[in-house]
Amino acid sequence: MLTGEQIRAARAMVRWEQSELAEKAAVSVPTIKRLERMAGPIAANVATETALRAAFAAAGVIFIDENGEGPGVRLRKERS
Question: Does the domain formed by 4-75 have CATH 1.10.260.40?
């Protein structure tokens, strides 16, 4: 499950404005704003979360699930 913090962090890592994420995920800007304001797990339908994950995955973002130290985000290592 994604958190609002992970979405904000992922967007910052790929240097996207909220409008860019909205376009790439086919989600409205108000939805992005609402989700990013949430602390902890987001309250979104499955299609929205799937679209966000797909947009970020295409940009090389990996979401790290809760593993005892908290959820996180990192960029995929570039292949040479």
Answer: yes
